[in-house]
Design a protein that fits this description.
With 406 residues, the chain is mainly α. The chain has 13 helices and six strands. It has helices spanning 51-54, 62-65, 74-81, 138-147, 178-184, 230-236, 244-249, 266-277, 300-314, 316-319, 345-353, 366-369, 392-402, and strands at residues 9-11, 17-20, 92-94, 112-114, 199-202, 205-208. Strands 1-2 form a two-stranded antiparallel ribbon. Strand 1 (9-11) and strand 2 form a beta hairpin. The longest helix is centred in the C-terminal third of the chain and has 15 residues, at 300-314. It starts with 8 loop residues before the first strand and ends with a helix.
Length: 406
């Protein structure tokens, strides 16, 4: 359709992108676009021109090959003979019509059909909302996969730990669902030799270095995002293109755990792969109810004025690389510690958001629950709670969190 941006991806049999085009493409009414090669002059001939499209391999079925006209690609030949193929379809359906199986050694590729609904096996249909016009929105289409009742194997039966993996549908401090933050943000990287968090300067501001996330969304990834994500490897039970470091951070489920490769059906896996290959966006439909324009997170201004001074006075001695004195922290202080402060109001705001997993249950968030529980840190006998429940500082942070519940 004219004036509609589209992306191109070559997929495997599960709908996961093997190769994705790095730019959106759109055309005006009546415009014709050709592929000249990424670094070729735009005035040059298309890659399909000349002898390339006029050489028909003998393995092609005669019924199609005999209809070929000079200059036609396989796609233009097929759609000229069957114009209904030009109608966009929402499902992954493939039939190898090109192979001349009457010839020795020629075997047709296996057919592929993965529909959102209407599959040959009803157990492979989506039991959760299907995308409209191909637009996948995380709250509407992906989050229900985690909370869908699968009996003992429902995802949120196990994954409710903010310090590990929390797939609940609660709203995080960013205004987005906590499960989205958990999948898209890696944990702070700890130096095993010192137990200290690794930091780096970004425009002069110290920022905590984060490890690989479960879902890869790196810009410019032409090889597909789903196949590069550790989440895909776990849920498909296959080793694909995830990094070695992400496999270390997120090992295979332990012995005795449910088989994660069988937890989602074919349509659910296809939906998840398409969402990741689309960049793992929170919203792809900007007109959707509650879309990103209306996602309201916690106030950074209030944090800087009210919360940051409290954290600096009560938490920085343990939760910054240099403590209040500026000296390096003793080895082991940061081991398994996800709350890393840098002294930058902007950076500490983002770090604090990672400790807020439910704005509508302010007292249940790690940001106030952990420092209000004695001993703190856990295991340090005799250590009082730095922010005891009911204190002025505790209440100030509690009120900041609760303001996000709408």
């Amino acid at each position: 359709p004219a004036d509609v941006p589209l992306g191109l991806a070559i997929t495997d049999q599960y709908g996961r992108g093997l190769q994705t085009h790095l730019n959106w493409i759109q055309i005006r009414p009546g415009e014709r676009r050709t592929c000249d090669g990424c670094h070729s002059p735009r005035r040059g001939a298309s890659l399909n021109a000349g002898a390339t499209v006029n050489t028909m391999p003998p393995a092609l079925t005669p019924a199609l090959a005999s209809q070929h006209q000079s200059g036609e690609t396989m796609a233009s030949l097929r759609t000229r003979l069957n114009a209904t193929l030009l109608n966009l379809q929402p499902d992954l359906v493939y039939q190898d019509v090109w192979a001349d199986t009457s010839r020795a050694g020629v075997v047709a590729n296996d057919p592929i059909t993965i529909r959102y609904t209407g599959n040959a096996n009803p157990a492979d249909d989506l039991a959760t909302p299907a995308p409209t016009n191909g637009l996948i929105n995380y709250p509407t289409h992906i989050q229900p996969l985690w909370t869908r009742n699968r009996g003992a194997n429902t995802c949120t039966n196990c994954h409710t730990d903010p310090a590990g993996l929390d797939l609940r549908a609660t709203v995080a401090g960013t205004g987005r669902m906590v499960s989205y933050e958990e999948l898209l943000l890696g944990d702070p990287v700890i130096d095993p030799a010192t137990g200290q968090p690794q930091t780096r300067l970004v425009d002069g501001v110290p920022m905590a270095v984060r490890g690989d996330p479960l879902v890869e969304t790196g810009a410019g990834n032409a090889a597909g995002l789903a196949r590069s994500s550790r989440l895909t490897e776990i849920l498909f039970g296959q080793q694909l293109k995830a990094s070695a470091s992400s496999r270390t951070a997120f090992p295979d489920p332990p012995a005795g755990a449910p088989n994660h490769a069988t937890m989602l059906n074919a349509a659910e896996k296809r939906l998840l792969a398409e969402w990741m290959d689309g960049g793992g966006q929170y919203y792809n439909d900007m007109g959707a109810s509650g879309s990103v324009q209306r996602v309201a997170g916690l106030s950074q201004q209030t944090f800087a004025a009210t919360v940051a001074p409290i954290l600096a006075a009560n938490c920085a001695s343990c939760h910054t690389p240099g403590g209040n004195s500026g000296a390096a922290q003793p080895a082991g202080v940061y081991l398994s510690n996800r709350f890393v402060l840098t002294g930058s109001a902007e950076g500490d705001f983002n770090a604090s958001l990672s400790m807020v997993s439910d704005v509508c249950n302010a007292a249940g968030n790690a940001l106030v629950r952990r420092p209000s529980t004695a001993p703190h840190p856990s295991g340090a006998l005799g250590q009082p709670a730095p922010l005891p429940a009911g204190s002025a500082n505790y209440t100030a942070i509690l009120n900041w969190i609760a303001a996000g519940c709408r």
